[in-house]
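User: I'm new to structure prediction. If I give you an amino acid sequence, what do you actually give back? Let's try with this one:
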Amino acid sequence: MKIAIFGAGAIGSYLAVRLHQAGAELSIIARGAHLQAIRANGLMLVSEGKRVVVHPFATEKASQAGVQDYVFVTLKAHTLPAAARDIATLLGPNTALITAMNGVPYWYFYGAPCPWRDRPIQTVDPGGALWRTLPPKHAIGCVVYPWAEMLSPGVVEQSTSNRLVIGEPDGCFSARIQTLAHLMRQAGLDAPVTANIRDDLWLKLWGNLSMNPISALTGATIDRLAFDPGLRAVSRAMMIEAKELADALGIHLSMDVEARIDLAAVAGPRKTSMLQDFEHGKPLEIEPLLGAVVELADLTGHGLPLCRAILALARALCPRPPIAPS
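Assistant: Good question. You get back a string of structure tokens that encode the predicted 3D arrangement of the chain. For your 326 residues, that looks like this:
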């Protein structure tokens, strides 16, 4: 089984170790110091007090890995457009593309039983470029719950969970997804297959669309977002707005808003990924997490006034390219 990991950050590196241990013919697409470390010393995972090192094929050029059976894309969603052409070199006619990313995916409406069936979402896929370059027939949805952090180049730490929910956009239990789930379970991952992947995407998104931008705006860690009365109230209000939209889209959320906030609180005094990116001066994952939600609200005629206000403030944090002289 040929599997590639495109996006060798913390989650991608964690998956690479586990899938390599399970016997996959694994390629990891990495760059810079991380790539050099993997080539020199292998890829180390620190988990539950144990350390394991694997030596996968590692390259900066996806085309060197060749056509794969499965490709996990573990990039931040807002970086996907720039990487799409490289990812496409890994795809053959039957390759499955697992989008293990937060936020609303570019294929969200692919095959969806709704008035917007097969409609690209402009916020995450301007002009439908991703839809054309990475045809959504390849896509398998994936909701990622593990916490992982790069300790140094070539070394990743994982904790909290090993759960990754996977599902076909049309809800079928295809042969390809059953094979994938079997391999992931052999790798020690909790990999349930769902017939309602959009429900699971929304359950993760529901917390991210509120807590991530608030964290970037305030500098608050996840425990403060959950337990500070004022910050919790803002998150709750955004999530209540978003639930009305989710209901209109036919989404079933399996817990109430208080339980969802409490679930996030399990992470403790950690920084959200958006806050980490802001502190490092990186572009922020605002559009997949909140901009796309507001676009969906425009389609369905929902106001979402607080979500729109937070979106405007969060967008102001994003690094902007310099304005060319006129």
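You can read the tokens as a compact description of the fold. Here is one thing that stands out. The chain has twelve helices and eleven strands.
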